[in-house]
Amino acid sequence: MATGHPPLELYDPGFHADHHAAYARMRKEHGPVVPVMLEPGVEGRLVVDYALITAWCRDERTFSRDARRWKDWREGRIPDDSSLLGMMGHRPNALFSDGEEHRRVRRAMVDSLSPFEPGRVGAEARSVAERLVDGFCARGEAELMEEFARPLPLLVMNGMFGMDHESGRRFFTALRDMWDGVDAERANAELERVLSAHIDRKRAHPGDDITSTLMRHRAGLSDEEVLQHLVLMVGAGHEPSAALLSNSVRVLLTDRALGDDLAGARTGIDEAIERVMWSAPPVTNYPVMYPVRDVEVPGGSVVPEGTPVLLGFAAANRFLAEEYADRMDDAPNRAHLAWGVGAHRCPAKDIATAIAVAGIEVLIRRLPGLRLGVAPEELSWRISPFAHALTRLPVAFTPQTPEEEGTPWTPSDSVPETSTPRRQSSEKPAQSSLSSFLVRLLRGR
Ligand code: HEM
After folding, report:
1. Contacts of 262 (CB under 8 A, 6+ apart)
2. Is residue 383 part of a domain?
3. Whose CA is nearest to atom 16 of ligand 1?
4. Transmembrane stretches, by residue range (predicted)?
5. Atom nearest to 281 CA in ligand 1
6. Domain of 134, in residue numbers
7. If you count Cβ atoms within 10 Å of the first and of the last residue's Cβ in the chain, which end, N or C, has fewer?
8. What is the pLDDT of residue 1?
9. In angstroms, what is the span from residue 168 Cα to ligand 1's centroid?
């Protein structure tokens, strides 16, 4: 490992206070691949260069996603209770697979997501968002992370999975307990039980949903593989979607140029989302790859076989943006790496964007006078080596009367079939009973 600055400690609050300054300092000293500590005593490398991330992600012969290649883990130096194992421990799913095996399971996932085109997802997300807003709009204040940004993508995904209301309720509760650290082991077991029962039910009553498509796909997924990929989609999709939504709202509320235009804001929303994806992407230093042999880095250092190599999307985006600072308008503006690159790039980019846009549109339309509830410098960020997300997003606004208070719900197990045009405030929202039910559960009613 090169001398000079010690490895970047990705768990250090000092690093999180200004991570871009730390990336710049380390890059100057070490070049495109910088030494990092993932937790005390656990070494890795972080790639902070756009071209190198792109090249390495496409080089499937040299870089594997299979975490069982992690040398320190293989040789017993990673304790079983390491907090890294939640994100880095091998699981039998697409994210940790290579080559043919990866293509097989990924194809099934991509096909299962394909009916959910952005218009349809946006309509469902708007409908869920309206009901979430109903839960707090009379108060004139809210904590948007817990009350909006986290539940919204999860509730939309529950519908896409085709869950009935009872499974949805248990699934939602188990996930909420996992976030809150309430007996995580029990919550995890409950999650698996709910999904197994859901899969059994879908065998008897298949529908137009992700679960049924995965089950009947020609890739021949076993029930266990279906379960693992439902968990992967929620795991990979939920927190980043919440982070994108909340961080884009923060940008809209703090950037005068974008925020001044809140009323007619579709352009402002798109711009805020793009800005977050460039400068503060939800997934900062993840996933992880493992070189199958020692790899020489341009500039001379070597990454030994089995070293965790983190993909530094946030740093790489920033360095590229700086390089093109005076030419950004001409540059291919969507070429950021925030959705990943290569065979494992995010298969749900359009779905996640549709959820974020719909959520923000509803907030802006329903909450006049929307503003931060604390000074911008009082907002705090989660300390994670892998992700960049607000812990809380307190906001204030002029109190409003709920639009849908007391709407009854009826059992049904899928999201609406058709995409609904953006409704006017006098219209009823598209009805999805499962999400309606879960929203009420969330609100404690
Ligand atoms: C703003 C929200 C999201 C962001 C920023 C995001 C970003 C990413 C990134 C960076 C990767 C890794 C790419 C790579 O390895 O090169 C990824 C993979 C993945 N994402 Fe997303 N994602 C988001 C939302 C979602 C949603 C909503 C879903 C599910 C419905 C999802 C499902 C997945 C899956 C399954 C993978 C693994 C794909 C594979 O290994 O082949 N993501 N995502």
Report:
1. 252, 268, 364, 370
2. no
3. 340
4. none
5. 5
6. 98-280+344-370+399-445
7. C
8. 47
9. 22
49 found inside a domain: yes
Cβ–Cβ under 8 Å, residues 12 and 40: no
What does the angle CA 55 – CA 336 – CA 355 come to, to the nearest 5 degrees? Answer: 125
pTM of the model: 0.89
Other CB atoms within 10 Å distance of the CB of residue 280:
24
Instruction: Please determine, for residue 187, whether its predicted confidence score (pLDDT) is greater than 90.
Output: no
CB of 36 closer than 8 Å to CB of 288: no
Higher pLDDT, 313 or 258: 313
- The enclosing domain of 4 has a CATH number of 3.30.43.20
pLDDT, tens digit, for every residue of 349-392?
A: 999 999 999 999 999 999 999 999 999 999 998 888 898 889 99
d(CA 313, CA 284): 5
Q: For residue range 63-85, what is the model confidence (pLDDT) as tens digits? A: 999 999 999 999 999 998 888 98
Protein residue closest via CA to atom 17 of ligand 1: 346
Q: What is the mean pLDDT of residues 140-155?
A: 95
Pocket of ligand 1 (CB under 6 A): 57, 94-95, 106, 109, 157, 232-233, 236-237, 240-241, 244, 282-283, 287, 338-342, 344-348, 351-352
- Please indicate, yes or no, whether residues 111 and 147 belong to a single structural domain of this protein: yes
Instruction: Please tell me the total count of domains within the chain.
Output: 2
Name the closest-CA residue to atom 20, ligand 1: 346
pLDDT at 438: 53
